[in-house]
Design brief:
The complex is a heterodimer. Chain A is of the alpha+beta class. Chain A is built from 7 helices and 16 strands. Chain A has 2 domains: 17-230 and 256-291; 293-363 and 378-507, no CATH class. Chain A has a 16-stranded mixed sheet that branches. In chain A, helix 2 packs across helix 7 (482-510) and helix 3 (337-348) packs parallel to helix 7 (482-510). Chain A is elongated and about 85 Å long. Chain B folds into 6 domains: 43-124, OB fold (Dihydrolipoamide Acetyltransferase, E2P); 128-198, Copper binding periplasmic protein CusF (OB fold (Dihydrolipoamide Acetyltransferase, E2P)); 205-285, OB fold (Dihydrolipoamide Acetyltransferase, E2P) (Beta Barrel); 290-362, Beta Barrel (OB fold (Dihydrolipoamide Acetyltransferase, E2P)), CATH 2.40.50.140; 370-451, OB fold (Dihydrolipoamide Acetyltransferase, E2P) (Beta Barrel); 458-554, no CATH class. Helices cover 7% and strands 51% of the residues of chain B. The longest helix of chain B has 23 residues, at 2-24. Chain B starts with a helix and ends with a strand. Classes of the chains: A alpha+beta, B mainly beta.
């Protein structure tokens, strides 16, 4: 009896290990570390459409195919298997590569997560280029990464270094090509967009002992690869007149990846020998997925037709960030701190999980005694039964608000611009963009901004989330109305959706 | 005696002890400790409001960032102004520097000495990256059109660092339409520019098109267009695409297309970060009537929208929908300068006397120092130089003969050798090549290209209408694999020079085979046939017997 009980328990445990997703990185790592780009396959899970450039012959060759990533997480040790199946029919090239990496993750005292990645064993890799086989005979790889999980965004940066030696053909005296890769990774994950960009320097050195005479040549490539998941909300107008609502908004989601390279390799003469003239190859390759379309609810805000904040309000209702259906929405109504935090948390949403990871967790078979323990609110004046209790609690846990310092949240007080901006910038985790904590701001009423919000106001001005009034003022004590809140949330979504992508992709490629 | 010695030693030790105590400042510090004091005094931090090296003072805002209010000025000068009277150690962003480099807006940490003077200072800058495109520029100013559509004017000094590809350059290297990053630190009315970066590889426009609007796809944000033509070299050319073509809008494209439109759209495309050509500007025109293209030089333009051209009496106007391109970049029309050579596409209605410019393209002439020689090799000094017995030099459509030897230098990193059957190796160039007649394209005395192609003496001019390889395939510009298969240029409006009668004979359509070892020069650069595009106007020197094009100069 006891034995069968344990058998059932084991089966349950294994099942849970196999299916439980774990909320970690959403994008980072999905392009591999070989200078390639990927987008998720729309049908096959854990499979990506993948493209990389092969420089082994001294002439860039585009390889395309699939990359399959499988990750398991056990006690903060992630084992990831990357399987590449690539080819280029025109150049008669095939590539098969399987690399298994082990990543050890450690959470530091300040909440930052460091990762260290190594190869579990020598990868298998065979490349056939026009009948010549390049077989991987030696490989080393190391990667380090730090993740700074902020309330709304996880920021990542890291570096990796790899060396691969390929043997050409099967002769006793081996011709070899050595590829040395060093790269930096910049990435972030959040709901409204995710981007990973790698700036890679690749050195290719060939040692052709069997050539007559034996020759050595070298070339280099600078590769920037970037993958992004993007959202966009567009207005769609109705053509029929007799329809119950005016147009509406469509949410579009897609992935796009870009590979931009500049390579300099020797020009080869008619006999295949390298000359001293370096030839420059520059090109951009890309992959993208078909857009996923989803219609947003059309709110009933006919009383706001033509209002300057109609579009932000309509989109926020459509995205279900604002509660309700809009008919009672008053643009001039002041927001309480409780309402604002609820809306802000709805706007920020949860950071997406890495779809490739399966986490192995142990299950506590004892009935948790904490289940029956009464919920303890982080604030004395917010009851667990409050309409926005979960949002306020989450905002407290993520450091977005700490209350008034006396254990109170003052949920019914009207929120001011200073308080709202402070919460938004805390959520983004970007306060260090200005001198901390003693920043000055570009606003004419700088001195009337409370000290606790001055830094946030300065950063918000840099990010373009707030604009001064016609006299250049920030107006810190001004209560936030619904219309201003709607514009603020709309600008926040725009910033998180498009401006961050520019910083992590476009500008790295451009400069 | 012994006592005397002991006294001297004792006195010596005492002196050393006193000197070391005072000298190290330990004694002075000991005096400043207050009862219960747990932190050292004399440390100040804050944001720099003003630094005046000539008068030797620095003013910080209050610790909480306040102090911008004019009413606070008095308190700031009393409470937050500190003086420095001698050379002090200064660090900024971790680097040793001089006090002049501490800028308003810096976060500064100051240590005061016992007299209240600054003993040392360190600071961190807070530069903000401003991104945009160069809109207008002068010798000491730059107007930037920021990514949010607003404009900002920066005053530049001679010392403002400007970089491209991490190499220092000058404001003259900024081409209007380039993407720019300006590192700016602002505080109050103080603006300091730490540097300007020009995009490393300007992404120039990839095409100027026009076509009949079929429909706008709002879901995929694209434009479906029929009868598509491309504006190449001042003329509208048919494209290879047949029927209706789809062009996606770039994320840069901010203006919404009109709700109802028909007629013609003129648009510019640029390669986006995803590698696709996308619309960055579109101009919707409904007028139809007379339309023509012209080439002219700009004499001036009025604020009222009139262009003054050198060689035409027609009135040509422009409006906000006019597409202006300069050196491959989409620019504001005000970026065009007097005497800029223009290629204009313009139209007017049947009853109007005034043309409206749809597209204006200005391209600066490429400077090239390349000279083409041909001569018989007299001597080869391997890896160093090649001497020809005598030589001819290409001058327009004729060869100028010089009956003296000439030596050209080999630079292995630059000099290329191309032969009929493929790329040669300059390391193999030795006495075996003596007596061979070769072309040498040189920059000064340095060989850039040496070719074994046969003598070409028949000049041909024309406009390229198509390029194919000899096996019938279209030439692929992205094909990295170099092929020795000859290409064929199809020329329209071709003319062949009659060397005997010194006249150009018309030959409307002409196919010219281009062998692998031909010499192709376009925009001052030597390349292969892949450089040549349909619409290019070319001047070719042809081999009289085979008719092969040996030297191809794109104008």
């Amino acid at each position: 009896m006891k034995k069968s009980y344990f058998q059932v328990l084991t089966i349950i445990l294994v099942s849970i290990i196999a299916v439980t997703p774990f909320n970690i990185l959403g994008v980072e790592g999905s392009m591999g570390y070989s200078g390639g780009i990927s987008v998720a396959d729309p049908i096959e899970k854990s499979e990506y459409q993948y493209t990389e450039m092969c420089f082994l012959t001294g002439v860039p060759i585009k390889l395309s195919g699939t990359l399959t990533i499988k990750k398991t997480d056990k006690n903060d040790v992630v084992t990831a298997t990357y399987t590449y199946r690539l080819s280029n029919a025109e150049s008669n090239v095939t590539l098969n590569r399987v690399a298994i990496y082990t990543t050890t993750r450690e959470t530091k005292a300040n909440g930052q997560i460091t990762e260290s990645t190594r190869l579990s064993r020598l990868p298998t890799e065979v490349i056939n280029i026009g009948g010549t086989t390049y077989r991987l005979i030696e490989s080393s790889f190391t990667q380090s990464m730090i993740t700074d999980p902020k309330a709304a965004i996880n920021y990542h940066t890291g570096e990796f270094s790899e060396k691969k030696v390929y043997a050409i053909g099967t002769g006793t005296v081996r011709d070899t090509v050595t590829v040395t890769i060093s790269g930096r990774t910049y990435a972030y994950d959040q709901y409204w967009s995710s981007t990973e960009t790698q700036r890679i320097n690749m050195m290719v050195e060939a040692d052709l002992k069997n050539a007559d005479p034996p020759v050595k040549w070298g070339g280099a490539a600078e590769i920037i690869v970037s993958g992004a998941t993007l959202y966009q909300v567009d207005y769609a107008e109705n053509e029929p007149t007799y329809i119950s609502f005016d147009g509406g908004y469509v949410k579009k989601k897609w992935m796009e990846s870009t590979l931009d390279y500049t390579a300099r390799f020797p020009e080869f003469d008619k006999n295949g020998r390298p000359t001293d003239v370096l030839k420059t190859y520059t090109n951009t390759e890309s992959l993208s997925t078909q857009m996923e379309l989803s219609r947003l609810m059309v709110p009933d805000i006919k009383h706001l037709n033509g209002h300057w904040a109609e579009e932000p309000i309509s989109i926020l209702f459509g995205l279900e960030i604002l509660p309700g259906t809009g008919e009672n929405f008053k643009v001039g109504k002041y927001l309480t701190r409780r309402e604002f935090v609820g809306i802000l948390m709805n706007t920020l949403k949860d950071i997406p999980a890495d779809p490739d990871v399966r986490v192995a967790t142990t299950v506590n078979t004892r009935r948790s005694s904490s289940k029956n323990a009464p919920e303890i609110s982080p604030f004395k004046d917010v009851e667990p039964g409050d309409l926005y209790y979960e949002e306020i609690k989450k905002a407290y846990q993520k450091g977005i608000t700490l209350g008034d310092g006396n254990g109170n949240f003052r949920p019914n007080n009207y929120i001011t611009r200073a308080e709202a901006i402070k919460m938004i910038v805390s959520a983004l985790g970007l306060e260090k963009l200005a001198p901390y904590p003693a920043s000055t701001t570009p606003f004419t009423d700088n001195d009337s901004i409370p000290a606790y919000a001055r830094n946030a106001a300065s950063v918000a001005a840099i990010l373009g989330i707030i604009e001064p009034d016609y006299m250049g003022r920030f107006n810190p004590s001004m209560r936030l109305t619904n219309e201003i809140m709607a514009k603020l949330m709309y600008d926040l979504i725009s910033y998180m959706g498009s401006e961050l992508v520019k910083d992590y992709r476009d500008r790295i490629i451009d400069f | 005696m012994k006592t005397g010695k002991t006294f001297i030693i004792f006195a010596l030790i005492l002196t050393i002890a006193i000197c070391s105590t005072y000298g190290s400042g330990n004694y002075i510090f000991a005096e400043t400790y207050a009862p219960g004091q747990t932190e050292e005094n004399g440390f100040i931090s804050g944001v720099v409001k003003e630094n005046n090296p000539s008068l030797g003072y620095i003013t910080l805002y209050f610790e909480d960032g306040s102090g911008m209010d004019p009413a606070a000025a008095n308190r700031l000068s009393i409470l937050r102004t500190f003086t420095y009277g001698y050379d002090i150690p200064v660090l900024r962003d971790g680097y040793e520097t001089v006090i002049d480099d501490i800028r308003p807006g810096d976060m500064a940490f100051i240590k005061l000495d016992k007299d209240g003077y600054i003993e040392k200072i360190s600071a961190k800058s807070y530069y903000e990256s401003i991104y945009g495109t160069a809109y207008l520029k002068g010798t000491s100013w730059l107007i930037l059109k920021k990514d949010d559509g607003t404009f900002v004017n920066y005053t530049l000094s001679k010392t403002t660092p400007i970089y491209k590809n991490n190499r220092p350059c000058t404001i003259s290297d900024i081409v209007l339409g380039d993407r720019i990053r300006v590192l700016v630190q602002k505080n109050g009315s103080n603006i300091h520019i730490a540097g300007i970066d020009i995009e490393k590889q300007p992404r120039t426009i990839s095409g100027i098109y026009r076509g009949k609007i079929e429909f706008v796809d709002n879901i995929n944000t694209s434009l479906a267009v029929s009868q598509v033509q491309q504006f190449i070299n001042g003329r509208w050319e048919y494209t290879s695409g047949i029927g209706i073509q789809n062009f996606k809008y770039s994320s840069e494209y901010k203006e919404l297309p009109p709700r109802r439109f028909g007629g013609t759209v003129y648009f510019v495309t640029k390669k986006e970060y995803d590698g696709l050509d996308k619309i960055i500007k579109a101009s919707f025109r409904t007028t139809s009537g007379y339309e023509r293209t012209t080439r002219d030089n700009l004499l001036g333009m009025t604020d009222g929208g009139i262009l003054y051209l050198e060689n035409t009496s027609d009135i040509v106007s422009y409006d906000t929908n006019t597409i202006a391109i300069k050196d491959g970049r989409l620019v504001d029309i005000s970026a065009l300068n007097t005497l800029d050579p223009l290629k204009i596409s313009m139209e007017k209605s049947l009853y109007d006397s005034k043309y409206i410019a749809n597209v204006i393209v200005s391209e600066s002439a490429a400077q090239t120092g390349l000279v083409i020689y041909r001569g018989r090799i007299k001597n080869v000094e391997p890896l160093k130089s090649v001497t020809v017995e005598s030589f001819v030099q290409l001058d327009g459509v004729s060869w100028e003969f010089t009956n003296t030897p000439k030596t050209f230098d080999i630079d292995l990193y630059v000099s290329r050798l191309v032969e009929a059957d493929g790329v040669g190796n300059m390391r193999d160039l030795d006495s075996a090549y003596v007596k061979q007649t070769v072309y040498i394209v040189a920059e000064g005395n340095k060989i850039v290209l040496m070719s074994t192609a046969p003598y070409a003496d028949v000049p041909v001019m024309g406009r390229v209408s198509g390029i194919t390889t000899d096996n019938g395939e279209d030439d692929n510009e992205n094909d990295n694999a170099e092929t020795t298969v000859p290409s064929v240029l199809r020329l329209t409006e071709a003319r062949i020079y009659d060397n005997e009668n010194y006249v150009w004979d018309e030959s409307p359509n002409l196919d010219i085979t281009i062998p692998f070892n031909s010499i192709v020069i376009k925009n001052g650069l030597i390349g292969t046939v892949s450089l040549i595009k349909p619409g290019d106007e070319v001047r070719i020197m042809r081999h009289s017997q085979s008719g092969e094009g040996i030297i191809i100069l794109c104008q």
